[in-house]
Design a protein that fits this description.
- The protein is α+β, with helices and mostly antiparallel strands and 414 residues long.
- It has a domain at 169-411: Zn peptidases (Aminopeptidase), CATH 3.40.630.10.
- Helix content is 24%, strand content 27%.
- It has eight helices and 19 strands.
- The protein has helices at 169-182, 228-241, 246-254, 265-270, 292-308, 340-351, 369-377, 392-411; strands spanning 49-52, 57-60, 70-75, 78-82, 97-101, 106-113, 125-128, 131-135, 141-144, 147-154, 159-162, 187-194, 200-206, 215-221, 255-260, 312-321, 325-329, 359-362, 380-387.
- The strands form three sheets. An eight-stranded mixed sheet has the order 12-13-15-14-16-19-17-18, sandwiched between helices. Strands 1-2-5-11-7-8 form a six-stranded antiparallel sheet, with no helix packed on it.
- A hairpin with a 2-residue loop joins strand 3 and strand 4 (78-82).
- Helix 2 packs across helix 8 (392-411) and helix 6 crosses helix 8.
- The longest helix has 20 residues, at 392-411.
Length: 414
């Protein structure tokens, strides 16, 4: 048995101060189905590089975004990878990420093992220094009797193998910092608070001219760490808003966009399946704001609305799931944009080749962001979900067109 991760008796438990009325001033919103979002213990991975003598390869989880709890040797060509979540209960988002290399190139079978009740979700992808991310094909990856196995040629060069493309907090910071500098003075970058582990919670504040009398569109992503396809759509969406041209100029002269490009940096760098460092699903905390990330974001939105005496019109939260889908609220008639959803979806179908919108509309019974936008500000709330394996070029196209059509609708442009 080769142990990469040894569960420590010491667990990360960080307490937040909570109060009946939110300490930040955000108004508590009551949802029919309550969710306990007080801090819960998590188990940290033991980070190390291990040489597995029996098969002659190195395996490492010593990097941000890694997820591998231990390994064992099945035979001279097969390793069993034990993947466990940060805590339970948790949804089935069995994320993994590790690095491997060897002195003598050889084929290795990696078998993925999860706790009872969980199963493999993602098709593995890999990255080496000389090439970008590649998704493995069915000739080397297969699932039989619920056991997922990857046959992989381990090279002398280090290969990163993961459930999804790894985008750490530093990777995201490099992107939004570069985008902000490129688009100054339209775009302003701020840290609006700190996470449990002291990481910045970034906000991009985007408008032309004065902020006075500009109603708000809110964009956010990465509440759930592995959901990078939603993040890719967010990138394309925001980059489109910032492209120079008559439409974007008109849009940003009329509206203010506040964007949160990384809601859960702790969970991202810890390699979590879903939760933050407080052991909580952030997208269940949009009612009492017990977690610092949601508290900081809602407080900043509240302050802007109060200071500028403006409305929140639209809130779009970018996520990932098994297939592309838009989750919407049933209530529309009395919102600030009563016709937006139907008009927007019509334009998406008209402008994306061979595309049909997959919409699931419901009443938000749990404290999620789309329900919060509706209940708190009478705004349109949308959860913009991208499939785990949706082609990356289509994600970019969809993000670009959906942003473009949103701007056209809100500026009444043809």
């Amino acid at each position: 048995m080769v142990s990469l991760m040894r569960f420590s008796h010491s667990i990360l438990v960080i307490c937040l101060i909570t109060c009946t009325v939110s300490c930040t001033g955000s108004r508590i919103i009551k949802f029919p189905n309550k969710v306990d979002t007080k801090d819960k213990p998590i188990v940290l991975q033991h980070k190390q590089v291990e040489f597995v003598t029996d098969v002659g390869v190195y395996v490492s989880n010593d990097f941000p975004g890694a997820r591998l709890n231990n390994i064992s040797v099945k035979n001279d060509s097969t390793l069993i990878l034990r993947i466990q979540p940060e805590n339970e209960p948790i949804n089935n988002s069995a994320y993994f990420a590790f690095k491997t290399w060897t002195s003598n190139e050889r084929d290795i079978y990696f078998q993925f093992s999860y706790p009872k009740g969980y199963k493999h979700r993602y098709i593995p992808k890999y990255e080496t220094a000389n090439r970008g991310w590649v998704q493995v094909d069915s000739t080397v990856f297969f699932i039989k009797d619920t056991i997922a196995t990857l046959k992989f040629r381990v090279l002398k060069d280090t290969t990163l193998i993961a459930a999804q493309e790894v985008r750490t907090s530093q990777d995201v910071k490099d992107w939004y910092t570069g985008l902000t500098k490129k688009n100054a003075p339209t775009t302003r970058l701020k840290s609006i608070g700190k996470t449990h582990l002291g990481r910045d919670i970034p906000m991009m504040d985007i408008y032309k001219g004065s902020a006075t009398n500009k109603d708000i569109i809110v964009l956010l992503t990465r509440q759930h760490p592995p959901e990078v396809t939603g993040y890719f759509a967010f990138q394309s969406f925001l980059e489109t808003i910032l492209q120079s041209g008559k439409l974007t100029d008109a849009f940003l002269e009329k509206y203010r966009v506040i964007a949160f490009p990384l809601m859960n940096p702790d969970g991202v760098d810890l390699g979590h399946w879903r939760h933050n460092a407080g052991g909580v699903d952030l997208n269940r905390d949009w009612g009492r704001y017990r977690q610092p990330e949601v508290s900081a974001v809602t407080n900043r939105i509240e302050n802007i609305v109060k200071e500028q005496e403006v409305k929140v019109l639209l809130g779009v939260d970018f996520h990932s799931t098994w297939h592309d889908v838009f989750y919407t609220n049933v209530e529309r008639e009395h919102t600030n944009l009563p016709n937006f959803v139907s008009d927007w979806f019509t334009q998406l179908e008209a402008n994306i080749p061979n595309y049909k919108v997959n919409e699931k509309s419901a009443i938000s019974t749990k404290p999620v962001s789309k329900g919060w936008f509706l209940k708190r500000f009478n705004a349109v709330g949308i959860t913009y979900e991208i499939g785990d394996e949706t082609p990356r070029d289509f994600i970019t196209l969809k993000g670009k067109i959906s942003a473009h059509e949103m701007m056209k609708l809100l500026t009444n442009s043809n």
